[in-house]
UniProtKB/TrEMBL annotation:
Keyword annotations from UniProtKB, A to Z: Glycoprotein, Membrane, Metal-binding, Repeat, Signal, Transmembrane, Transmembrane helix, Zinc, Zinc-finger
Pfam family, one: VSR_TRX
N-terminal signal peptide: 1-16
Domain PA: 59-135
Domain Vacuolar sorting receptor thioredoxin-like: 186-369
Protein name, UniProt field: PA domain-containing protein
Bilayer-crossing regions: 397-419
GO CC term, one of those recorded: membrane
InterPro entries per UniProt: PA_domain, VSR_TRX, ZNRF4/RNF13/RNF167_PA
Keyword Repeat annotated: yes
Annotated GO MF terms: zinc ion binding
UniProt membrane topology term: Single-pass membrane protein; Single-pass type I membrane protein
Subcellular location: Endomembrane system; Membrane
């Protein structure tokens, strides 16, 4: 009965993010949908659903080692007293698969709200979510009861869905910063997966940390040295009073974008060497050119890509006069950044869903794989990796069905044997009776005949 109930829930609530399944009273109080936000660290099983029992952390704030799981997979932790990462790490150590943290208030959880990493998020590999104080308190009431209730139907049981947008073609936007070491780490980690996915339908776009300061930010002064195209594209000054300027970063961003566009196979090597060798922003141009030569990339093609991207604002022709020009590459990047909302650096947007959690090459690969409507065969391991609670449930269900089927088969077989035996015995008895009858009739017949004979004589 419970199994059937679960199947119905999976189908019915496929669109929810967090769904309370039991107890019924809690479902009534919390409503059909509970909003949640994802942490910006840990490993988020994108494209998957997790189901599990929920219990309250002990201690409530999760700031010191938690008592081991009481049989639940998910744990509720109160906000405050220590960082999110500490809480989730403690939950992970206590054997939980998901941490649910309550906010201080009931403000709506903006989609771009992030539970920030404190710098140690890499050590966390379970996902964690954030809910409002109201939702948290209601859930806590029921999750605390568990300790004196043995009845499973009274325990809080929920389903959490980690959405991806499934498509045939995957659009990946990689948000990077020329000066940020972590951007190069992510690119380096992802390079092997880029090769694996090479023949798949994945469309990559690079965006760099640039902003427009031409009119919007009047109260914020940015030196034109840090901008190109009359403050259309600006970048933060990399060295304060030093000789380098934001322009150096913008020029490098254009160069990297062009290399990726024309030499995607060399791009990862370029990035690797650039990160190691080009440390001074004022020397990016000469340093980058050297690597381009080393990697046998056609410098002409990269320069042409750059020059072609500057266009006159009126007639959209190529122009050298930057005071009245826009840049087609950067314009596109600004648009994508705006579309994605507040995203950090480095970060990744897959099919318009912002990747949350610890950003690793493997993690990006996982999200890409899970965003395919029909994941390619090279993704299969990746997809199995994330099969946690949900699929265990399915496996158990299949096992149960198999077991019941076998039982029924054995039962039918035994029934058949018994039936056969009875039929045999019955028919033996019946024939015996019939034979006996026939024999006696035969005897009677002959005796009668004899008598008739005798009579006739
Ligand atoms: C924070 O710590 C104090 C003192 O240990 C405690 O009284 C309080 O309950 C804690 N806060 C939470 C949210 O658990
Ligand atoms: C690739 O993705 C970018 C950004 O999402 C988009 O502008 C572009 O049109 C896409 N290209 C193709 C061929 O779909
Ligand atoms: C400022 O930049 C935006 C976006 O690039 C552009 O649409 C707008 O025309 C610019 N305004 C001026 C005054 O240059
Ligand atoms: C560049 O364009 C601006 C604005 O149209 C103009 O005032 C300036 O003279 C031009 N500079 C050159 C070198 O053509």
């Amino acid at each position: 009965m419970q199994i059937i109930f679960l199947i119905i829930c999976i189908v019915t609530y496929a669109n929810c993010k967090l769904k309370v399944i039991r107890p019924a009273e809690l479902v009534d109080r919390m409503g059909s949908k509970v909003n949640m936000a994802l942490a910006n660290f840990g490993q988020i099983p994108f494209g998957h659903r997790l189901m599990g029992y929920v219990e309250m952390a002990d201690p409530y704030d999760g700031c010191s080692a938690l008592k081991p799981s009481y049989g639940s997979q998910f744990v509720l932790i109160e906000r405050g007293n220590c960082t999110f990462v500490t809480k989730v790490k403690n939950a992970q150590n206590a054997g939980y698969m998901l941490a649910i943290i309550g906010n201080h208030n009931d403000e709506p959880l903006e989609s771009d709200f992030v539970m920030a990493d404190d710098g140690h998020g890499y050590s966390v590999n379970i996902p964690s979510i954030f809910i409002t104080l109201r939702d948290f308190n209601i859930m806590k009431e029921y999750a605390t009861r568990k300790f004196y209730s043995e009845n499973q139907d009274d325990q809080v049981f929920i389903l959490v869905k980690f959405d991806v947008e499934k498509r045939d073609q995957i659009d990946v936007v990689l948000s990077l910063d020329v000066k940020d070491g972590d951007s190069y780490r992510v690119i380096d980690e992802f390079s092997q997966f880029y090769k694996i996915l090479k023949n798949e339908n994945v469309n990559y776009t690079l965006v760099y940390q640039i902003f427009n300061a031409n009119e919007t930010q009047t109260d914020y002064y940015i030196d034109t040295d840090n901008c190109i195209c009359s403050r259309r594209y600006c970048s933060m000054d990399p060295d304060g009073d030093g000789i380098a300027s934001g322009r150096n970063l913008i020029e490098e961003a254009i160069r990297q974008t062009c290399i990726f566009k024309h030499y995607p196979d060399n791009f990862f090597d370029y990035m690797d060497q650039f990160n190691l060798q080009c440390t001074k922003a004022q020397a990016y141009s000469t340093c980058g050119s050297k690597i381009i030569t080393n990697l046998k990339i056609q410098a002409d093609e990269i320069n042409k890509c750059r020059d072609d991207s500057f266009r006159d604002t009126i007639n959209h022709e190529r122009t050298q006069n930057l005071s009245n020009a826009y840049n087609s590459i950067l314009e596109h990047q600004l648009l994508l950044i705006e579309k994605a909302g507040m995203i950090g650096v480095p970060s990744v947007v897959v099919n318009s869903i912002v990747y949350k959690g610890q950003l690793t090459g493997n993690g990006i690969f996982g999200e890409i794989c899970n965003s395919f409507i029909y994941p390619p065969s090279i993704c299969m391991n990746e997809i199995d990796d994330y099969d946690t609670l949900e699929n265990n449930g399915y496996h158990q269900l299949i096992l149960v069905i198999l077991f019941i089927s076998i039982l029924i088969a054995i039962f039918i077989f035994i029934l058949y044997l018994l039936f056969k035996k009875f039929v045999k015995r019955d028919s033996v008895e019946v024939t015996q009776v019939q034979v006996n009858e026939m024999v006696s009739q035969y005897i009677k017949f002959y005796e009668g005949k004899d008598q008739q004979k005798q009579n006739s004589f």
